[in-house]
Structure formats: C-alpha cells, structure tokens
Design a protein that fits this description.
Blueprint (H helix, E strand, L loop, with lengths): L14 H28 L10 H8 L7 H9 L2 E2 L6 E2 L2 H4 L1 H4 L1 H13 L9 H5 L36 H4 L5 H24 L8 H12 L3 H11 L6
Antiparallel strand pairs: 1-2
Helix pairs in contact: 1-2, 1-3, 6-9, 9-10, 9-11
C-alpha cells in the first residue's frame, strides 16, 4: 500500500486545476487531491476500470451533486475514458514510483520464491558490485541467495574471543567462510519470509541484500569475497 502520491508544486496554477476550481470551487479541488491519494493507495496504475461514476465520487469524498464531479474531471481532462473505464490522465508520468509499485511487488515476491531454488540463481550477480557501494556497510547488487551452505561439511567456527593469529593452524579460511555464510544465510531467511508477503516492494536489489549483511555483522564486500572463495566456479 502506497503511503503518498506526488503532486506538482504547479498544481494550484495549472489551467486544468483553475478550470476545475471555477466550476466546482475549493471542494472540487480538494476532492481531486483525495482521489489522487485514494488511487495511489488502491489503484496504483491509475486505472479506474470497473468503477462507476458514483464509485469514483465516493472514493474522492465528493460532497456535491452526483455525477457532477466526474463529469467535470472528464471535461477538464483530469480523467480519460468513460463510465466503468476511466483512467487518471497521464498518471504514470506524474507518479511513476506509485505506478511501478505492482511490478516491484511482483519482483520482490519472485526473488523470495527463487531464494532456495539454485536453478534460478544467477551466480554472476553475487560477485558484481557498484563502485559506489564497494565498501559500504553493507552494500551490493546481490539479490539472490548464495549456494546452499547446508551441503558443505566444514563446521562453522563458534568459539568466542577467537584470535585468528593464534588459531590459524587449527582453523582454515574456509572454516571462517563457512561460519560467515551460515550467519548471512540465517539472516537472509528472515528477509525472504517478509519479501514473500509483499514487504520490501519499494526496496532496490542493493537494499534487499544490505539488510542480512548488516544483521550478520558483515560488509557486502566481505560477503562477496566469501562467495568467491567458497564458490570459485561461479566467479569465472
């Protein structure tokens, strides 16, 4: 559900708004703003298909005579189409972020569904990085999950107060990498559960990867290095 909609600073001075105000007064202009917000929340693509004139006026909170509000919106061209097939004029152009919301939701759900499906994982994306995010905490264009850590046999390191310089003969780099991968994977599972319910639809791929990295206590750069060491075949 969208939390807001974009309204241009020129909206009060736009000829269409002026015409609307002349015909319906301040209540008409206010009802139009209410309609914009209702559409952002309920019809993000700006399509009012299936809605009658009465439905639209109820959504806008229009207090005047029935039919007058929609008829005037169509006349000044805030609305395109006809009964049961109206659309807000150029809605996607003026509110691209809101209009694109259904696609972002579908993208997030698809990513969550593909989380544990290795056939859908693009390994090249694990190692890619935007230079501006190279060392941020955390940051990466990685969206898909790392390969299944459960298939590997090296135990993760779990002791506290560990000093690598004193234990380097006891533990290999892969042991540390296994530990870090498991930490990341545990946090990623939590995020995927949220993504499957539609949470995070407004997040970018970078941001979706950032959260489990941060919660696991790593930078994205570190996790890319872990993936490269554990799965060199995917970095080629």
């Amino acid at each position: 559900m969208a939390d807001d909609a974009r309204i241009s600073t020129a909206f009060p001075r736009h000829p269409k708004t002026v015409k609307l105000g002349r015909r319906l007064g301040a209540p008409g202009c206010y009802a139009l703003v209410c309609l914009f917000l209702w559409v952002a929340e309920n019809r993000p693509e700006g399509d009012l298909k299936g809605m009658t004139t009465e439905d639209i006026e109820i959504a806008a909170g229009w207090p005047g005579d029935g039919g007058e509000f929609v008829r005037t919106l169509a006349y000044v061209r805030f609305l395109d189409g006809e009964e049961n097939g109206y659309r807000l004029h150029d809605w996607a152009e003026h509110n691209p972020y809101v209009a694109d919301r259904p696609r972002r939701i579908e993208k997030a759900r698809a990513a969550a569904a593909a989380r544990w499906n290795p056939k859908k994982v693009d390994p090249q994306r694990m190692l890619a990085a935007c230079s501006e995010h190279e060392s941020a905490m955390p940051s990466s264009p990685l969206l898909h999950a790392p390969p299944d850590a459960a298939r590997r046999t090296s135990p993760p390191f779990t002791e506290t107060g560990f000093d690598l310089s004193l234990q380097k003969e006891k533990y290999s780099q892969s042991d540390f990498d296994e530990r870090d991968l498991r930490k990341y994977t545990d946090e990623r599972k939590k995020i995927d559960l949220k993504l499957g319910s539609g949470w995070g639809a407004d997040l970018t791929d970078d941001q979706i990867f950032e959260h489990p990295c941060f919660m696991a206590g790593f930078t994205a750069k570190h996790m890319r290095e872990v993936f490269a060491r554990l799965y060199p075949e995917n970095s080629a």
